[in-house]
Amino acid sequence: MKKILFASSETHPLIKTGGLADVAGSLPVALTGLGQDVRIVMPNYQGIKNCEPGRYLCTVRVNNCDVNLLETHLPDSEVVVWLVDYPPFFDHPGNPYNDENGNPWPDIGDRFALFCRIVVEVAMNRAYLDWKPDVVHCNDWQTGLIPALLSLEEQRPATIFTIHNMAYQGVFPASTYNLLNLPGQLWHQDGLEYHGMLSFIKGGLSYADWITTVSPTYAQEIQTPEFGYGLEGLLAHRQHTLSGIINGIDINVWNPETDQKIAQTYNSKTVAKKALNKTALQARLGLPVSAEVPLFGLIGRLVDQKGVDLVLSCLKEMARMPLQFALLGSGDTSIQVRLQDFARLYPDKISITIGYDENLAHQIEAGADMFLMPSRFEPCGLNQMYSQRYGTLPIVRKTGGLADTVVDTLPQTLADGTASGFVFNDAVPGALMETIKRGLVLHANKPLWQKLQRNAMSKDFSWENSANQYLSLYREI
Q1: Contact between 4 and 34 (Cβ < 8 Å)
Q2: How far is CA 245 from CA 32, 135, 381, 445, in A?
Q3: pLDDT of residue 101
Q4: pLDDT (0 to 100) of residue 284
Q5: Cα-Cα end-to-end distance for the chain
Q6: How many CB atoms are located within 10 Å of the residue 398 CB?
Q7: pLDDT tens-digit series, residues 75-89
Q8: Which of 8, 270, 351, 431 is in Cβ range 3.0-4.6 Å of 426 for a Cys bridge?
Q9: Cα separation of 248 and 260, whole Å?
């Protein structure tokens, strides 16, 4: 049995801004199910909910601050959560990174530096908890100082640093280094220094024993200038200790056989019943009700990263074709306005819902025939996995986790039973449009389409699968 300390700035369902929280709330549970001793450590934000209040454990002094450690549990699980309680930093309305008006916290560097210092004390068994981990699993820039600080310790635990999105790096002016009172021996260009500034993420990338990211293809992509954001050289240098492991999905929440949020449950043997979800969705969205017309879905943030601009470029042509399109999402205001204009022009073809609605998300996954996910980059992505589980064939660009989880429908993959969606290469509207047309041609062939649906629905995207890969990595390092 391994003792694993899982350090994260957010954990679902306690507090969530993105996919990192889903991983932090699922992977430790899956590892515990495999017989490991896992503890999560995260800051005690004011916004935390869905758990019993933390009970006081001890007070640890770091950098002239007295910091309390509290203990609670992930809901409906045995997994212990240690909350780093320092009210001057964390007891404010807002989320982990922004205040209630959406502005970044001005002292965000101080906050996460303090968090990292406390994690180091816990990891070195200096926090009066009588528990020392074998592995400290750090996630994203907010935990980047942990491997760096642990590198200065004797008999330290092994460290893993997971990149969820290279675009966020935690870079601060050089003056911050002294203000944070960090050890001088870490300040050099192979350490925390990055072009004369302090980079939190470099602490993880330079000092962790192993680096992972959330898909094998993304692990390759971040070694190139397009996806490495200036750190591709360091990542290429560390390629022998860098690997990609796909995130899992919550197969209890996203299960068409038991989903209470959809009109009609079904499985791969009763996939014909899926059509009832389409007609229920059409009725809910005010689209003409027809089980025959192909329905395309899209759920996601309306930003360029997600390739929504490609979809916008195709909508006029799509509106002239025998199909319907249902979108749920929010983001860039100008994109929202353009989408809503299309919905007004083509009310019997296009439905746009701005915002987020968990029930509608499940209904789109169950009701659509195809799911559009033409991302410019996508470290892992979850909706393409939800879609396959629901027999909704994804149309994706060949990048990151999309390339690793969707098998393009070609003569060979049809023959060997692996085809589960449609993949295109170039981030241009023409390539997306061709792939949509390819999907429409195959959709017209009902027996073939049902075979593709069954292929997609038979894939294993469970967290247990991913947890086993992490576990063998912990044992290796």
Answers
A1: no
A2: 18, 17, 12, 35
A3: 87
A4: 98
A5: 14
A6: 16
A7: 999 999 999 999 999
A8: 431
A9: 21
Least Cα distance to 33 among 461, 466, 459, 467 occurs for 467
pLDDT higher than 90, residue 18: no
**pLDDT at residue 216 in the model:** 97
Instruction: Check: CB of residue 123 under 8 Å from CB of residue 146.
Output: yes
Q: Compute and round to an integer the Cα radius of gyration of the chain.
A: 23
Fold of 3-248+464-476: Rossmann fold (3.40.50)
Is the per-residue pLDDT at 102 higher than 90? no
Let me know if 343 is exposed, middle or buried by CB neighbors in 10 A (0-12, 13-18, 19+). buried
Tokens representing 188 are 């050099």
Q: What are the residues whose beta carbons fall under 8 Å from the beta carbon of 460, sequence distance 6 or more?
A: none
Nearest to 53 by CA among 25, 80, 72, 75: 72
Q: What mean pLDDT is predicted for residues 332-337?
A: 94
Q: Compute the Cα dihedral for 406, 34, 159, 165 and give only its sign.
A: positive
Instruction: Indicate left, alpha or beta for 90 from its phi (over 0: left) and psi (-120 to 50: alpha).
Output: alpha
Residue 341 has a pLDDT of 97
Indicate if 268-460 has the same CATH topology as 3-248+464-476. yes
Q: pLDDT, tens digit, for every residue of 424-475?
A: 999 999 999 999 999 999 999 999 999 999 999 999 999 999 999 999 999 9
Strand order in the sheet with 193-194: 171-172, 197-199, 193-194
pLDDT tens for each residue of 190-210: 999 999 999 999 999 999 999
- Show me where the domains of the chain are located: 3-248+464-476, 268-460
268-460 is a CATH 2.60.120.10 domain:
no
CB-count exposure of residue 178 (10 Å: 0-12, 13-18, 19+): exposed
